[in-house]
Recover the amino acids of this structure.
């Protein structure tokens, strides 16, 4: 009886082809891709550091607006359209809030142009990315810090988002006499 070897040759060839493909296109050496050093990436946010002695209200005006109207609304405890308003809770240690920069050409804090302002309160363990004057978490990189000293009489902090990336630097806030609202300078 004569047997046809063609199916065996084709089947064997496919097995060899799949094994070679797995070796060539497989996971490679198994090493994970190295994350870039945050110090080499551009700044994309500004950090606001508040002492944990009590709760504070943080207000972020919308991109492309003057902060004065938002400051006046904050002093009257009124909402400003497009502004982000949050309460940073009292607790142990320092509360860190990240304020993303405005994106060029969008008038917003995101590339889609539909988020006029934003702010994110970081949990204590999220500040683990803080090193060499740079705080990085979830893709946000902050080198600029707005600091409110302990014992301040400030209750509300207004922080305009930066319109461009900055070289970094710290600003210590205090309210003007007779006011409980502190306003961070624009970048």
């Amino acid at each position: 009886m004569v047997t046809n070897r063609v199916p065996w040759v084709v089947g064997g060839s496919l097995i060899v082809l799949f094994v070679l493909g797995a070796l060539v296109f497989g996971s490679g050496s198994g090493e994970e891709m190295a994350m870039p050093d945050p110090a080499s990436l551009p700044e994309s946010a500004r950090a606001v550091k508040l002492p944990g002695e009590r709760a504070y209200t943080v207000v972020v005006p919308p991109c492309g607006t003057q902060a004065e109207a938002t400051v006046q609304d904050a002093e009257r405890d009124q909402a400003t359209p497009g502004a982000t308003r949050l309460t940073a809770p009292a607790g142990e240690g320092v509360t860190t809030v990240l304020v993303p920069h405005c994106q060029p050409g969008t008038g917003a804090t995101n590339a889609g142009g539909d988020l006029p302002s934003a702010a994110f309160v970081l949990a204590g363990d999220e500040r683990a990315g803080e090193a060499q004057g740079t705080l990085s978490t979830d893709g946000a990189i902050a080198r600029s810090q707005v600091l409110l000293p302990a014992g301040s009489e400030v209750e509300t902090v207004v922080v305009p988002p930066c319109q461009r990336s900055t070289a970094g630097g710290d600003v210590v806030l205090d309210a003007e006499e007779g006011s409980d609202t502190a306003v961070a300078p624009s970048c």
